[in-house]
């Protein structure tokens, strides 16, 4: 830790992958860290994420650079842990829907140096065993060999174990914690039961609830947060190792032999009740199962084990919102889509900024203050 920094004690609110990663990096740097969460770790967006590690398709140069750094951190983690079961790099396969083409996307990926192979349907089945070649678009598909997937709850558990060993305090099931502000500065948090936590700096990493939590402080953060729905099957015999992103469903394997899958159309069918709870029709789940089976070789029987539903964090302009909150000194926040790809790198960069006060060039484009004053 920077000996000249006034920050010695840091409170991290939110124990998903990003919050836990940030807390661990802070503790490794010598800070006194307390990590708190409303219920249990990974109970929010981290527990219902497809967790595809990638930087595929067009995006801003800064966002691509950050995502590639994120993927590299996972490769370092895999080396350090000896290829853990919750982290795999077996590539990603995607193809366009009817009336569309991914030829331009492929050219873009080649132009920026992102490993991208254009493959025929038959070749796709060889590069990604377990996919049904007959389901692949006639024009072909893109196979990205450098992509992978991570089981975020298992990752968070691994990081949490290290965090406790590093001497941090971890509190779960405390209910909602709101940032406490004294004399205009963040000084900790208070729970609904009245319990207080003191800190020199606070990191708000509550996933889709970040805009709500900032709104309590008078800070407006534009968002496009939708509902997410992730279905998990019981273990199934399938050689699938790659992540599939197809027009009607995305599928990836899990460490125990199950498959997880989601789709944009299924999320739109989720009903949000007046009390904020969710209703998912049996027909929606059955439709997802059918779409998943349709892209898998042999069309294996898929039995649903469970599903998770809830909000998925997406900032108003689609890019990460990371760093100090100008309106509240001492408060830092992380609000982003692609939380799986970015979890490790954001934890590292945010921790460094909190403790040193030095701006990370990788985060310069993603500040909360970038939105127009009218929208804030």
From TrEMBL:
Q: Which InterPro entries match?
A: FAD-dep_OxRdtase, FAD/NAD-bd_sf
Record domain FAD dependent oxidoreductase: where: 10-352
Protein keywords: Oxidoreductase
Record-level GO cellular component terms: cytoplasm
Please give the superkingdom of this protein's source.
Bacteria
- The keyword Cell membrane belongs to this UniProt entry's keyword annotation: no
Q: Which residues cross the membrane?
A: none
Q: What is this protein called?
A: D-amino-acid oxidase
């Amino acid at each position: 830790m920077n000996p000249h920094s006034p920050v010695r004690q840091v409170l991290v609110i939110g124990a998903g992958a990003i919050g836990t990663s940030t807390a661990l990096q802070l503790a490794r740097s010598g800070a006194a860290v307390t990590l708190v969460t409303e219920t249990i770790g990974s109970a929010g967006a981290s527990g219902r994420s497809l967790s595809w590690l990638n930087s595929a398709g067009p995006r801003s140069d800064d966002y691509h650079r950050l995502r590639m750094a994120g993927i590299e951190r996972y490769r370092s983690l895999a080396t350090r842990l000896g290829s853990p079961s919750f982290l795999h790099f077996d590539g990603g396969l995607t193809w366009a829907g009817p009336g569309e083409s991914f030829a331009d996307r492929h050219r873009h990926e080649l132009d920026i140096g992102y490993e991208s192979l254009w493959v025929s349907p038959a070749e796709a089945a060889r590069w990604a065993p377990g996919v049904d070649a007959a389901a692949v678009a006639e024009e072909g598909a893109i196979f990205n060999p450098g992509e992978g997937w991570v089981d975020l709850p298992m990752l968070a558990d691994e990081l949490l174990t290290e965090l406790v060993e590093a001497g941090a305090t971890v509190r779960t099931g405390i209910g909602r914690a709101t940032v406490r502000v004294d004399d205009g500065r963040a000084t900790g948090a208070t729970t609904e039961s009245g319990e207080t936590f003191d800190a020199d700096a606070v990191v708000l990493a509550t996933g889709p609830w970040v805009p709500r939590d900032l709104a309590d402080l008078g800070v407006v953060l534009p968002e496009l947060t939708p509902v997410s729905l992730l279905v998990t099957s019981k273990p199934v015999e399938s050689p699938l190792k790659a992540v599939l992103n197809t027009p009607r469903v995305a599928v990836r394997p899990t460490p125990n032999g199950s498959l997880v899958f989601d789709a944009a159309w299924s999320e739109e069918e989720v009903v949000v009740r007046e009390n904020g709870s969710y209703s998912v029709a049996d027909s929606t789940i059955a439709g997802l199962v059918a779409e998943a089976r349709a892209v898998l070789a042999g069309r294996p029987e898929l039995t649903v084990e469970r599903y998770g539903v809830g909000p998925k964090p997406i900032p108003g302009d689609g890019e990460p919102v990371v760093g100090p909150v100008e309106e509240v000194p001492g408060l830092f926040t992380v609000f982003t889509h692609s939380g799986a790809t970015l979890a490790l790198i954001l934890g590292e960069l945010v921790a460094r900024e909190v403790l040193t006060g030095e701006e990370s060039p990788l985060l310069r484009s993603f500040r909360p203050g970038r939105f127009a004053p009218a929208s804030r």
